[in-house]
Amino acid sequence: MSTTDSTHRTGPLGPGDQVQLTDPKGRHHTITLEHGKRFHTHKGSFAHDELIGQPEGTVVTSTGGATYLVLRPLLPDYVLAMPRGAAVVYPKDSAQIITMADIFPGARVVEAGVGSGALTMSLLRAVGPGGSVHSYERRADFAEVAERNVHRFIGDDHPQWRLTVGDLAEDLADEPVDRVVLDMLAPWECVDRVAGVLVPGGVLCCYVATTTQLSRVVETLRESEMFTEPASWETMMRTWHVEGLAVRPDHRMVGHTGFLVTTRRMAPGVAPPRRKRRPAPGAQGD
Questions:
Q1: How far is it, in rounded angstroms, from Cα 180 to Cα 185?
Q2: What is this structure's pTM?
Q3: What is the DSSP string of 216-284?
């Protein structure tokens, strides 16, 4: 049974389901349920069969007295725990990309590079059964890891997903598309190629790690005169400790992971209005 089936996301736990076990200290273990198998830790074990047929939110106790809360992992849980070939796009950034790039049901989306498949899974959920996601990845080893991760969570042979091992700048064959998401070292090298397939009004979203990359991609988009004025930002996520009247920020947070840039395709042959604001001193060099 494919995990695209809703019975794998809701209802009683069954063989083949992934479940996340959480101990009283908040530590997680993810297992796939199988008849006849046991889960072992230094605090004892329990049989998978004790969970099969049970609802989510149940608690199981090991032979050593350790208790575990049992739930199916959510997509953010899976992304942070899955095997990695390349660094993953964190859930906080995936959520921003889905919303700010307006990935809608039925959208035709091109993604490059696929990395470990974290963003791909969010894109597939957002486009729904009427859309499509075509992922490009230069490195075959990264593509192999991503394919395993996506198939394990979303389902084998997902009809809305196509994965190409190759360079987007050379191998892009999609036309037209509604959205393009670039997670690569030099997205500015693909601006002209992307502009050729993106529909007027379509959104280009770039995810970059450093300020030098951010500057280069924004200035390239401006110079191309094929896109609207780019918007740039980053997202910080800080959790809070809440216990009675002790309410304060946690000491640790998910800080900088990357910068996001979004812009929209102009109509062919139409240049965007010139910027009115005066550039900051030194913005254009000496």
A1: 15
A2: 0.86
A3: HHHHHHHHHTSBPPPEEE---B--EEEETTEEEE-S--B----EEEEEEBPPTT-PPPPP-SPPPTTTT
